[in-house]
Every structure is written in C-alpha cells, then in structure tokens.
C-alpha cells in the first residue's frame, strides 16, 4: 500500500500553493509500497527560507488539520541542509528510495 492517488494529487496542490516550497519527497514505507493501513506519511519538505526549525514546522501545521485521517512525519530542510546531509545514511536512503511528489517549476 503506497500513497493513495487522490491524496497525492491533493498534496501536490497543497504544496504548490505554499510559498517557498522547492520540492517534497515521500519516503519510508509509503514510498516503497510496504505500508500498512496504520503507516504514517513521511515527507521531506525542502524550502527556500532559513528559519528556526520549529517555525518551519509551524508553516505546515495546517497540513495536519487538512488531512486528519493520516499520521504525519515531516522533515523540513533547506536546500543547503539537504546538500550538507546527503552523505548521511538516512538521507542517502531517502534520496535513493523516495518519490518526489512535488517540485516547483523554476521560472526562466
């Protein structure tokens, strides 16, 4: 059981409306289709803005209210933090097995 397609579409629309979101990667059991009905939704959210970590999480509190039937595990990192952490085993696994569910189109 992966991520339901209707939820994927709703998440894509949600993140497209959020200012400063560069990309969102689904990881964990829902990305590898090993999830059960009790599995949470693990997301790595890459943002532009350098804020204290708790402030970053607060930007996405409404996600928890918008989709209350799911348990959420959110990581909110900047592009710089992602670049620095890409060699950590945990991050390598996310980048290898994760699914990009949203990526902002850069305006030319």
Strands, total number:
4
Order of helices and strands: HEEHHEHHE
Mean pLDDT: 92
- Placed side by side, the strands forming the largest sheet appear as 3-2-1-4
Outline the low-pLDDT stretches: none
Distance between the termini: 38 Å
The radius of gyration over CA amounts to: 13 Å
How many helices? The count is 5
- Secondary structure: helix percent: 25-40%
Rough outline: globular
Strand percentage, roughly? 15-25%
Structural class: alpha+beta
Largest sheet: 4 strands, mixed
Provide structural commentary.
It is built from five helices and four strands; from the N terminus they run αββααβααβ. With 108 residues, it is of the alpha+beta class. It has a four-stranded mixed sheet, sandwiched between helices. The chain is globular, with a radius of gyration of 13 Å. The longest helix is centred in the N-terminal third of the chain and has 13 residues, at 5-17.
